[in-house]
Amino acid sequence: MPMISGQKINIQKILGLVPEDLLSTLSKDTKIDYCAKVLYGKRIFNLLLYGILTTDRTSQRTLEDLFKSNLFKTMFSYDAGMKISHSSISTRLSTIEPEFFRLAYEGIYAEFSKSFTTEEQLKHRIIRVDSSMVAETCNKLKKGLSPGRKYGKTPDEVVKQVKYTIAFDGLTACDFKIFTDPSYISEDRAIPEVVLLNASKEGSTTNIYTFDRGVSSIANFSSFNNAHIPFVGRLKTDRRFDVVSLDEPSDSERNLGELMLISSQVVNLYGKRHVDKENKYRLIVAERKEKIDTTPPNNKGHVKKKENIFYFITNDLELSQKEIADIYKQRWDIEVFFRFIKQELNASHFLSVSDNGIKVMLYMTLIASMLLLLYKKINDLGYKTAKRRFTIELWEALITIIVKECGGDPALMNKTYFRKFAVP
Predict the structure, then answer these.
(1) Burial class (CB in 10 A: 0-12, 13-18, 19+), 266
(2) What is the pLDDT of residue 220?
(3) What are 123-143's pLDDT values in tens digits?
(4) 47 inside domain
(5) Is pLDDT at 423 greater than 60 in this prediction?
(6) Which residues pair with 243 in a beta bridge?
């Protein structure tokens, strides 16, 4: 029964998406516990998940304190005498096998998908793909991306960043890649890799991918066509093209919601030197019904360009103009998802700057996001409310366990309750 009145699902069912037998099997298969003394695979998995879900800003010292707490040990039935240090967490994250967390992520995603009917899953075949950068602690990285001007800066002054590119299906992240190689600073390199990765998986034939105008090269569009991957993207308004045929939409078809259709045509696109006549695309040009001020601000810094005219492109010639605009509009969902994991799940910084640690923490962040997003969706809550109520229910569940086990005297927890458990 839900602990908060009016809710349809409680945290016990949500946490059930993390099967104990799955983690046990993966521990054996990946040999993640080889030479480990305290921080076994399952334990660090539970510690990271608990830290992400219950703290505003996760750090290695915070995790050390959480591991020592009776609440954490009660939650996962650990011996009261177990101790770890923040340095041991750092060392473990830098050497632990990320494959354990990748397989756990995939297994939990499969369990997550079972919470929705086939009809509901089919509604989420529009895959939004975008990237986000994290730089808060990345000045310690040996390798990373360095966008922006570097003239006059010493190597130590150039802040390195990590790019993670995510495929989002409207429910949660279904695929991702982490990039630290400077060559991936261009979205024309990063996003297509994730699109091709996701499209290669079983059951992806009905997917349609949408991304921003950072992906615009003829080579990428051609590779999508060759792989039969439908997409909806956006072009810069100065992109060159040859018109193959013009559409003649009716007045009602020109109404695209907040936009008004100016023109619709089938085109061949120009590359850097020549026109690609082998591939055809539908290009629709639309404008805002309510114009905005597009004057660039006087202040310095990177500011996204504001426009009233939009060029949308697709290789699916069967899509209507309204469908094209509506699919691209859903791309905004991944921007909201990025803001959610950065603001609510501590993804605005990395707990570890090692390659292993970065991968592990992103896997764990996405696993935590699955639990919260399911809780949010079924209970019809906002992002912040879902995180707040989830945390409240977690504390209430732990208090219930403590009160039950100690017979109303919390002091007995250390003396009696924890004696049931022994360090393996």
Answers:
(1) middle
(2) 96
(3) 668 999 999 998 755 567 777
(4) yes
(5) no
(6) 267
Tokens in use for 66?
């959480």
User: Do residues 316 and 382 both lie within one domain?
Assistant: no
Domain assignment present for residue 317? The answer is yes
The two structure tokens encoding residue 284: 């629709």
Tell me the pLDDT tens digit for each residue of 185-239: 999 999 999 999 999 988 788 899 999 999 999 999 999 999 999 999 999 999 9
Residues 384 and 311 in one domain: no
What's the domain range around 377? 11-100+356-420
Instruction: Give the count of domains, the chain.
Output: 2
